[in-house]
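[recover] target loaded
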């Protein structure tokens, strides 16, 4: 699957230089950068923000290390959850098709001042690998 145009032209959606050494030190299990995706927010409420239904496209990366699940979109951290944290069980992983993985969670589980469902849809050929690894970690 192709990388996003923003990644190919400007490197947007790659692992930031400051983050890469820490990910490599943790031991990267699976990683894909320069991938496109969608952030879908339903009935979302946060200080200063309210969305009934909002979809935003992004270029970013998704990585699973021995320590955490991490994802960035347009250089901003979206997900950063340690694998040994009880809140990791609040993330639901599903395959949309062989090249799409969907991570969904209730925003209130991760931040007390937020509520609503957030779904992150990633277009990656490694979707099955991410889903299998994440499911085995959450099941433990």
């Amino acid at each position: 699957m192709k990388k996003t145009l923003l990644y190919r032209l400007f490197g947007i959606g790659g692992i930031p230089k400051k983050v890469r050494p820490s990910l490599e030190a943790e031991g990267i299990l699976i990683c894909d950068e320069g991938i496109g995706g969608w952030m879908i927010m339903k009935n979302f409420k946060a200080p200063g923000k309210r969305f009934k239904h909002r979809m935003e496209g992004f270029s970013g990366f998704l990585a699973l290390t021995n320590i955490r699940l991490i994802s960035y979109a347009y250089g901003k951290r979206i997900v950063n959850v340690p694998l040994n944290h009880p809140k990791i069980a609040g993330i639901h992983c599903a395959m949309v098709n062989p090249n799409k993985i969907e991570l969904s969670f209730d925003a209130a589980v991760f931040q007390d001042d937020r509520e609503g469902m957030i779904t992150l849809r990633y277009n990656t050929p490694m979707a099955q690998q991410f889903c299998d690894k994440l499911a085995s970690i959450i099941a433990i």
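[recover] notes: The two ends are 31 Å apart (CA to CA).
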